[in-house]
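Researcher: I'd like a structural prediction for the single chain below. Treat it as a standalone chain; there are no partners to consider.
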Amino acid sequence: MNAPARSRRSRRQLRAVLLDAYGTLFHYEPDRMADLFHSIVDRLGVPVESGALLERWRAHEDAFRKRRIRRAENGEWDMPPDHQFTPYRQAWTEAFRLASDDLNLNGGFSEKAAELIVRDLITREMYRDVPPALEAMRARVPLAIVSNADDDFLHGTLRHNNLTFDLVVHSEGERVYKPHPRMFRAALQALGIDDPAHALYIGDSPREDILGARGAGIPAVWINRAGADWPDEQGDAADYEVADLLGAVDIVASKTHAAL
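Model: Treating it as a single chain, here is the predicted structure.
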């Protein structure tokens, strides 16, 4: 007796691609900050050398990044309660005020200086590989942004680059920063994805992006534009490593092919 014929069914193994924004889609080179702070000092008439202001501001901004989310002794990510969440604009303004105290300056320029950082972020251009890569991925699966960013400058940057996505999740909206898994789970829930293995995350930060996504059970692609070594203190490397966003297209294609 012949075995019954098996029906052919097409299924997608991958249901969505989640992407970081700055450093992944948009230029975010640290060297740009030196030029930006020179412009801040010049435009706002701050009586200090721009490098000195940047050094002290960066020290306080780094301290903010370290305390906004920490790893507890049990390995879980710990964060302040929602009512203590600090968006970037507020944190950057406070960093200018603290830097002013360090340098014996009048910190009255702090809000305007933070605004200049926001305006600079809004005008960040996308990398040249982004349009063709997004076009190729969008033909296969929905695309979502999951970014540590405030609502205004993230959407401003997207508009500036004429980019749209099926979903945009940001830290200000979720009241938490990556690498906390809540950011990634919010995207999965909004997309109706129960199994995180059916998503793929692409980002440039080993800690915020790769460890964060993998902590939520999502396979992760490290986009390593600078050709850096994986930092040993971050544990296991990403599931995939690519030099640019086009390098991730084949990964997406391999996970969305029709299967019997």
